[in-house]
Every structure is written in structure tokens, then in C-alpha cells.
Design brief:
Layout (H helix, E strand, L loop, with lengths): L9 H20 L6 H5 L3 E2 L2 E2 H18 L2 H5 L19 H17 L2 H8 L13 E6 L6 E7 L5 E7 L9 E8 L2 E6 L2 H13 L1
Parallel strand pairs: 5-7
Antiparallel strand pairs: 1-2, 3-4, 3-6, 4-5, 6-7
Helix pairs in contact: 1-3, 3-5
Length: about 200
């Protein structure tokens, strides 16, 4: 009686497991944009994560190999079941095809197309859109060194970013983005008069 078991190559199961692990690690490491984990583990390149892209490719590759192992689709032994598709069977390149699709999906889900369009219409770099924004220091900033701030992006979503300053700024201080230094934001504490004025305005409201 013919067997309908598909021969499974262990490398596809390994690729699936490694790919899932890389995706999870990349998302964990990228929680704080601009941090060392984000840059050296998630391997951020703009809005995309190289580690996540690699993981997505391995996920698709492993899944494709488990669905249609190349040997089973072409030179499988007699009596084995080879799934037949519209063109006579699955392509032996299905693992690679699904891998590329997975990587493409990973890239597209990370890219902010609206933001890219806005940046493309402006000669300034992407960080310039945050100039004048108010933020709060969530990791102390030493003069000339780096810390972290919490703020909201153009869509109103809370984000955190690496920032630097010309003076020491303790955690919890309200600051304003006054410029950029390299690929990081430059912030300065809000003046006491601005803080008082803001409190008075809020009280009257």
C-alpha cells in the first residue's frame, strides 16, 4: 500500500526554528530605538531590522521545505506522495520563494510609507521633523554623552529615542528638541518660565 508520508529534511525544521528565534530576538532588541541592542543585535538599518529580515527569510524557507521538500517534488522514490499543483507539482524552489516573500513582508511591515513620502519631499533629514518637540528624559543624559527621552511621533504615538545634550540632565526632566548631533537628537531643558507658563495655562483650562 503506498505511503503518503512526506520525507522531511531536518534542515528545514532547523531553519524554521532559527528563523522564529531571530524574529523574536530582533523585536526584543529593537524596543528602544537607537540603543546598543537595537544597533548591534537587531541590526537596524533605517526603519528595517536586518536580523528580523534574515529570520523572516529562514521562516519562509523552512516552511516551504516542510510543505514541499525539493526531493519529494522532483526525484522522490516511488510510492511517495508528491503534492500536485496547477503546473504539475510544487516547484523545487518553493523554499527559496517563500523565504524571499517572508523577507519582503518583513521589510514592508517595518517601512512607514507615509513618513518616507514626507521625507522625500523635504531636503532636511528625518530627525529634523522632531525639532521643537517636547520630551521627558527617561535615562539621565551627561553633558556630551547619551541618554534616552520619551516623546510622541508625528502620529501621536509614544516613542523613545537616544538623545544627547550640552549639559547634564537628570531623569524626569522636561526637555525640548533643539537640534541634531550626528544621527541623534540634541535636547535642552525647558526654562523655568516655560514650565510655569505651561502649568498656569493647564490650570486655567
Amino acid at each position: 500500500m503506498p505511503s503518503f508520508d512526506l520525507p522531511a529534511d531536518p534542515k528545514f525544521a532547523i531553519a524554521l526554528a532559527v528563523g522564529l528565534g531571530l524574529v523574536l530576538v530582533a523585536r526584543w532588541a529593537s524596543r528602544v530605538r537607537g540603543s546598543k541592542r537595537d544597533l548591534w543585535i537587531a541590526l537596524r538599518l533605517g526603519d528595517v531590522l536586518i536580523t528580523e529580515i534574515l529570520g523572516a527569510f529562514l521562516l519562509g524557507y523552512g516552511l516551504g521545505g516542510l510543505i514541499a521538500p525539493p526531493d519529494a517534488a522532483t526525484n522522490g522514490p516511488p510510492g511517495r506522495f508528491a503534492p500536485v499543483g496547477r503546473f504539475g507539482g510544487f516547484s523545487p524552489n518553493l523554499p527559496v520563494t517563500l523565504g524571499v516573500v517572508g523577507a519582503a513582508i518583513s521589510i514592508l511591515t517595518r517601512l512607514d510609507l507615509t513618513s518616507l513620502a514626507l521625507r522625500g519631499s523635504s531636503p532636511r533629514n528625518g530627525l529634523s521633523m522632531y525639532l521643537g518637540s517636547d520630551a521627558r528624559v527617561i535615562a539621565p543624559i551627561s553633558a556630551g554623552a547619551f541618554g534616552q527621552i520619551a516623546m510622541r511621533d508625528a502620529m501621536g504615538y509614544p516613542i523613545s529615542a537616544v538623545a544627547t545634550a550640552d549639559t547634564d540632565i537628570p531623569q524626569g526632566t522636561e526637555v525640548r528638541v533643539v537640534g541634531t548631533k550626528g544621527v541623534n537628537l540634541l535636547v535642552a531643558p525647558l526654562s523655568s518660565t516655560e514650565t510655569v507658563a505651561g502649568v498656569n495655562t493647564a490650570t486655567r483650562g
